[in-house]
Amino acid sequence: MFTLETERLILRDWKRSEWRDAHSYAQDEEVSKFMIWGPNSEKETKEFVHNAVDHAAMRPRRSFELAMFHKELNKIIGGCGMQIVGAEAATGMIGYVLHREFWGQGMTSEASRRILTFGFEVLKLHRIYATCDTENIGSARVLEKCGMRKEAHFVEDMFIKGRWRDTFLFAILESEWRH
Ligand SMILES: CC(C)(COP(=O)(O)OP(=O)(O)OC[C@H]1O[C@@H](n2cnc3c(N)ncnc32)[C@H](O)[C@@H]1OP(=O)(O)O)[C@@H](O)C(=O)NCCC(=O)NCCS
């Protein structure tokens, strides 16, 4: 099983049986407020976890959709991951979602930094990016804390939950990561 470790977390592949863990936060309206998906039905969360498991088995592996497992509490508290995109397979796109109970403890920044290290040091990626709703202050802050540059502000590019939203794009190059 694919595993990345941080001080407080283990980031690892999902198991099909763990859809209920994902559902504990994916069904939350507040958690999915800025997301294209959600709040999820049980069927939608099961599909997400099953897709994550199916994609993890593909070779070459392009999808790293991982559960955020809290070591001390011995439970899954969120999900994070990276998709490898582009013809060169040299670009990563990261994303994350955390159960509301654990917001504001630096968990997502800790997980994201680990994924950036994996992307640059192991996968030898050239660039890693992420997007977030311009109103999603917590998410933009996570990306900033990880050393990513605000590279773009797209105006009303996403239609989410009944209205057009602006999006920030944050990115970091391997050369910037090294310095
Ligand atoms: C976005 C999210 C992943 C952040 O996770 P987290 O573990 O709480 O993030 P961290 O604790 O690592 O960092 C959050 C930072 O944002 C800040 N922050 C959060 N909400 C804020 C707000 N409304 N105003 C100002 N700062 C805010 C925190 O203070 C912290 O910064 P600091 O360490 O400088 O104090 C979490 O809120 C979440 O799951 N949201 C719902 C799903 C989502 O939006 N995912 C991202 C889609 S792009």
Overview of this structure, please?
The protein has helices at 19-26, 42-56, 107-122, 137-145, 174-178, and strands spanning 3-5, 9-13, 63-70, 75-85, 91-98, 127-133, 149-160, 163-173. It is an alpha+beta fold and 179 residues long. It has a domain at 3-126: Aminopeptidase, CATH 3.40.630. An 8-stranded mixed beta sheet has the order 1-2-3-4-5-6-8-7, sandwiched between helices. β1 (3-5) and β2 (9-13) form a beta hairpin. α1 (19-26) crosses α2 (42-56). The site of coenzyme A (COA) has 19 residues, from β5, α3 and α4.
In short:
With 179 residues, the chain is α+β, with helices and mostly antiparallel strands. The chain is built from five helices and eight strands, in the order E-E-H-H-E-E-E-H-E-H-E-E-H.
- Share of residues in strands: 35-45%
Shape: globular
> Quaternary status of these chains?
single chain
Indicate the mean pLDDT: 98
**Relative helix content:** 25-40%
CATH superfamily of one domain: Gcn5-related N-acetyltransferase (GNAT)
Rg, nearest Å: 16 Å
* Topology-level CATH name of one domain: Aminopeptidase
What is the topology?
Layout: E1 3-5, E2 9-13, H1 19-26, H2 42-56, E3 63-70, E4 75-85, E5 91-98, H3 107-122, E6 127-133, H4 137-145, E7 149-160, E8 163-173, H5 174-178
Parallel strand pairs: 5-6
Antiparallel strand pairs: 1-2, 2-3, 3-4, 4-5, 6-8, 7-8
The structure holds coenzyme A (COA).
Residues 31, 34, 96-98, 103-109, 132, 136-139, 141-142 line the site of coenzyme A.
